[in-house]
């Protein structure tokens, strides 16, 4: 596979024949799989530092941080990790599955296990 990058964006992705170097395989049938693989490569590289996977960087990408305000308070007002109530103006980390925790609690939890403590949804996986 050959990837051509331009300013951090894959501009061309194509399969090249292994048995006949230089020969391109049928572009139409391989275009979509090539681009998905290219997107995966960029996603993985975005989570790396100095060529190695960075868990803190991956966690940062997996959590949406917000400040709890009075209007946003609802029935889900307890962090299931530490069992403490959310307070106004606290930093809250919301995962893709919509479960909310104190920012510090969920960062610490995700460093040990890359899944939601409530529903076990897995993070840091590329969704094809």
UniProtKB/TrEMBL annotation:
<dbReference type="InterPro" id="IPR045191">
    <property type="entry name" value="MBR1/2-like"/>
</dbReference>
<keyword id="KW-0833">Ubl conjugation pathway</keyword>
<dbReference type="InterPro" id="IPR013083">
    <property type="entry name" value="Znf_RING/FYVE/PHD"/>
</dbReference>
<keyword id="KW-0479">Metal-binding</keyword>
<dbReference type="Pfam" id="PF13639">
    <property type="entry name" value="zf-RING_2"/>
</dbReference>
<protein>
    <recommendedName>
        <fullName>RING-type E3 ubiquitin transferase</fullName>
        <ecNumber>2.3.2.27</ecNumber>
    </recommendedName>
</protein>
<feature type="domain" description="RING-type">
    <location>
        <begin position="79"/>
        <end position="120"/>
    </location>
</feature>
<keyword id="KW-0862">Zinc</keyword>
<dbReference type="GO" id="GO:0061630">
    <property type="term" value="F:ubiquitin protein ligase activity"/>
</dbReference>
<keyword id="KW-0863">Zinc-finger</keyword>
<dbReference type="GO" id="GO:0008270">
    <property type="term" value="F:zinc ion binding"/>
</dbReference>
<keyword id="KW-0808">Transferase</keyword>
<dbReference type="InterPro" id="IPR001841">
    <property type="entry name" value="Znf_RING"/>
</dbReference>
């Amino acid at each position: 596979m050959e990837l051509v990058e331009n300013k951090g964006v894959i501009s061309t992705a194509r399969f090249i024949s292994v048995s006949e170097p230089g020969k391109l395989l049928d572009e139409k049938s391989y275009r979509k799989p090539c681009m998905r693989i290219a997107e995966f490569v960029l996603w993985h590289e975005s989570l790396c530092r100095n060529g190695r996977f960075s868990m803190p960087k991956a966690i940062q990408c997996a959590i949406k941080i917000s400040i709890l305000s009075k209007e946003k308070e609802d029935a889900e007002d307890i962090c299931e990790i530490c069992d403490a109530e959310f307070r106004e103006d606290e930093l809250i980390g919301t995962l893709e599955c919509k479960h909310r925790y104190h920012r510090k609690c969920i960062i610490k939890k995700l460093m040990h296990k890359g899944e939601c403590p409530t529903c076990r949804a897995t993070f840091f996986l590329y969704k094809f």
